[in-house]
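Hi, here's the filled form for the chain we discussed.

Project: internal
Contact: R.S.
Residues: 288
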Amino acid sequence: MTKILLLLLPLLGFASAIKVEHSQIKPLGKIIQTNAQIIQLSDQQQTIVSRLSGHLEAYYVKPGQHVSKGDQVVLIESIELSKMTAEYLALIKQLEAANTQKETAMTLHKKGLSSQNDVSNAIIALENIRSQQNTLASQLSSLGLKPDQLTKATDQFILYAHADGNVGTILAPLHSNVDAQTALVTLVNQSGYYAIAYISVKHAMHVDKHTKGWIKLGDKSYAASFVQLLPNIDKETQRAKVLFSITNSPDNLLLGAFAEIDISLAPTRNVVMVKKSALTLFNGEWVV
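And the returned structure, exactly as it came back:
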């Protein structure tokens, strides 16, 4: 009896370590296997443009690098910015002088040594300079500069990330000349990835809101939810295109890459599903 118990103890310990998983009943239709391309929608990808003409001096980022809102992205040396900041500082001095002239004109007017017209002209001149300064300050602020902190003219224009995301593509070569609308860098919002699956027109006729997909990325599989059947046929392959949203996808997918996808088409029926690892080939048949 003692020997039997000793033999059973290791078996009991092994059995307690076995992970028990339950089968599940899920709807399943005809499964087709095809290719799908990883994409992001246009509103998930934003482009940083130069906004000023100048010389592209440095990139602070590389493709694939994660950036947070406010991180430095590009440095441009801009003569245009140098002129703007110099003009702003000059307007500050002009405003001080115009204010002094106004005060002098008002003092002389009180003493009867100047006319009301002289006072009015001094006030108008002061307000014109203030208006120019405010306009220029607004322009500098829109470029990310702080006019009230300027102490000297600068040609150093730094562009910052306007949102969290990953750097997509560097669009303009380093040390090139750019204008105010040159596209420099794309930023990809990591809120979600999509896949465009390519299927035959015959199968496309069975696609509906209940269509499910499972996309294979590396050694893992991710559920993909049907979004819509795209209206245009792919010209090269003459196949229909189906847009899927990838559920719980990793945040480092390569845009434009192709992957395998399994698609379940209607009509569906409820079937018992088990993990592949639970199946064993016995006498030529698969058993659980």
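Let me know if anything looks off before we file it.
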